[in-house]
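Fold it.
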Amino acid sequence: MAQKAAKVPTFVWEGTDKRGEKVKGETQASNVTMMKAELRRQGIQPRAVRKKSALASLGRGRKKITAGDIAVFSRQLATMMNAGVPLVQGLEIVGRGHENASMRELVLEIKTDVEGGTNLSDALGKHPRHFNELFCNLVEAGEAAGVLDTLLDKLATYLEKTESIKKKIKKALFYPTAVLVVAFAVTALLLYFVVPQFQSLFQGFGADLPVFTQLVVNLSNFVQSNGLIILVVLIALTVAFIEAKKRSPRFVHFLDRLALRLPVVGQILHKAAVARYARTLSTMFAAGVPLVEALDSVSGATGNYVYQQAVLEMKDQVASGQQLQTAMRLTNLFPNMVIQMTAIGEESGSLDSMLAKVADFYEEEVDNMIDSLSSLLEPLIMVVLGVLVGGLVVAMYLPIFQMGQVI
């Protein structure tokens, strides 16, 4: 197994540029001598140089690298190259200008590799957590065809659109989930702390409680007797669920299949998977990646195990001479409109543009369905909250109302 490369140190420097103006910054280099030589090559005369401490590296601005950061990096680097800026200098400018220290360090590591003679695609491939196989393949295709700036721009658009869909789906699912969790937490607190206060009051009535009130009192007694056990079980189930998602592919596959069968939400996930499939395949095919090879990368970008397996089956069929439209039809997953658009694209030689239109249409469909789902869930959530909290309030005051009627 290859050993992990030593981390390149960062130096903080101050100096003067060609016009005699004071400048300062940070530069990664193997040693001080190489760092000073790099500055002089840029026309900067270094005056003061010091090595940046590890503690300073952990300072402000260090955040997790997100897909949005990668999209911005692709767009900025594409703009630099389109303006005629050399690749190494473009990486230097993009890296230095990034607010996220983690992203800044990543880009400068890539710049150091490229400066040493490594291809950009190979330099990116050393960081698979941030640049997946699809990204590296497209960059490699751009390098081979001499259109790296165009491919980076397409990659930025692709990342922005796919991340936009993911965020909207997460937002649509997070809001009702969070509200319901809070509602059940409030209900549990009422049962544990508030209902016992009413129970001691009811004991002085000397009469049987209404059935509904008695049910709530019994539930409160159960929560008080087994509250700790219930809490431990809930925490254990949550931890087990999270660990199973991380470690068990079979469990993840089960959840993906189940999610597609859910009412309303399942339709959104179906359309989102189709949109990601079309957007990814369109981007790769436009970059000149062969269809079979493109389908191999597209399978992992669909975001769902069911579609991933279907695309891999399509790849085998296309490799054996089958048309893409026929392979898509055999999966019984893709809508007829998508298959027809693919057929037109294959026949006219414009498969990439047709798939891009499909992606645009289904991305808009996902947006509309999420908006409709949010509008539908708001009153439904209010009903659930009313039943849970309002039901407890009515149960507690029902004996008092009955006693007032008797009096």
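The longest strand covers residues 10-16.
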